Input
Amino acid sequence: MSFTLAIVGRPNVGKSTLFNRLVGRRLALVDDQPGVTRDLREGEAKLGDLRFTVVDTAGLEDATDDSLQGRMRRLTERAVEMADACLFVVDARVGVTPVDEVFAEILRRKGTTVILAANKCEGRAADGGLIEAYGLGLGEPLRLSAEHGEGMPELYSILKPLAAEAEARIEETAPETDVDVGEEDEDGPRVPTFEKPLQVAVVGRPNAGKSTLINRLLGEDRLLTGPEAGITRDAISVRLDWDGLPVRIFDTAGMRKKAKVQEKLEKLSVSDGLRAVKFAEVVVVLLDAAIPFEQQDLRIADLAEREGRAVVIAVNKWDAEPDKNDKILMLREECERLLPQLRGVRLVTVSAKTGRGLDRLQESILMAHDVWNRRVKTAKLNQWLGAMVEAHPPPAPGGRRIKLRYMTQAKTRPPGFVVMCSNPKDISESYSRYLINGLRQDFDMPGTPIRLWMRSQA
Ligand code: GDP
Ligand code: GDP
Output
C-alpha cells in the first residue's frame, strides 16, 4: 500500500497525458477525441524519489442519470474515495467551464485533499484560464504542462509531504506483510507466498466477457461493461485481495481483430494486450463457449506460452451452453490437440454473468502459479533422467550414442532445466519433447511452459 493519487477532471484536459508522464509506460491511451479514457486505471508513478500509486479516472461529467456519463461520474467518486489525495485538472487554454465548477463543488463536499492543477500552461495562451482557475475556490492552481513536463518539480514538492503523511498513517496500522518467496530446493506443492501482488492478465477476444469477469471478481462495478462497443479499450489493472493474498489483474480489451475504433487506438490496444501478457505471471485466456478456440484465442495462448507465462484457459458463458456434458469433452479434446505446447493446461468453465465457477478459476490461477514456481531437487531429477534414458535411449546418429550425463533445474517461472550431454546438437526435437512431457507428468507440472536446454560439458 502506498500513497494514492487520483487524477480527475473532465475529458480532454490532459489527465491521460499526465498519467503517462508519471507512470512512464504507456498503460493509458491518449487521443484528441473526448471520452476515450473511460475506466479507472492504476499505475505505479515515479516522480523524483517519490513512488506512489496513481489512479486515472474517467472524465467527470455533469450527469446524474444512468447514462454512460452517470456511470463515469460514480466511478470517479469511487476513485476519489480510494485515493489519499486528488489532483483536479482543468484546461487553462479553455478556461473554467460550468462542468469544472460542478465538480469542484463535488470535490469540496467530499472533503478530500484537492490539488488544483491548470494544465496546458506552456505559453501565453493559458494566462486567462489560469486566472479563472483561482475562482474555483480551491486555492492557487498549480501550473502544469503535462505534455511538456512543466510543473513537475512543483508537483513533487506538494506531493512529498502528503505522501510522507500517508506512509506514516499506513505504517501505524499495517500488519507485517513481508513474506519469504523461498528460493531453496523443495519438492511438492509450495504454499504460495508473495511479497508482491500476484499478477494476472485476462486476455481474450472482444466480447469474450473480460470486463464482466473482472467486475465479478471485484464484486463491484469498477469497470464499465455494456453494449457500447469497445468500451474497455486499454490495459488497466485492478487490485484485489483473495483471502489476504494481494492480486493485481490486468484487463485488456486489446487484441481486437477488426478495427471498430480508429486505427490508432487499435494499434495501441493490441500492444497494450501484449504488454499485459508480459507483465503477467498468470495469463487467463478467456474463451466464449459458443465460439471457442478461434485462431485469435490460439495465438494469444501461444504468445503466453512463448513468453513463458503460466496459463489457465477459462471458457465463459457456460450458463448459456445447452449441452454441457458433450461440450466439455469436446473442449478438452480440442485443447490438447490445438495447444500441445501447453499440455495439461487447466481448463475451467465459468459464467462471469452468474459467478458460477469463479472459485474454481481462482483456485486454478493459484495452482498454475504454484506449478510455474516449482523447483525439483537435483537428486530426484537425475534419478528420473536415468530411468527415462533407460526406458528410451536417445538416438545414436552415425552409431555414436549420445550420453545424457547430468541434469539440474536452472530456473523457475517458468521451470527451466539443463541437461549436460555429449553432442547436444544431435538431440532431436522429438527426444526433447519426450523429456519435457515426462517432466510434466512425473513432477506434476501440467499446463506450464517448460524450458529444456541441452549443453555439452566444457
Ligand atoms: P484526458 O481526456 O483528460 O485524459 O486528456 P488527454 O490526456 O487525452 O489529452 C487531451 C488532449 O490534450 C490531447 O490532444 C493531448 O495531447 C493534449 N494535451 C495534454 N496535455 C497538454 C499540455 O500540457 N499542453 C497542450 N498544449 N496540450 C496538452
Ligand atoms: P469484453 O469485450 O471481453 O470485455 O466483454 P464484456 O464483458 O463486455 O461482455 C460482452 C458481452 O457478453 C456482454 O453483453 C456480456 O453481458 C456478455 N457476457 C459476459 N459474460 C457472460 C456470461 O457468463 N454469460 C452470458 N450469457 N453472457 C455473458
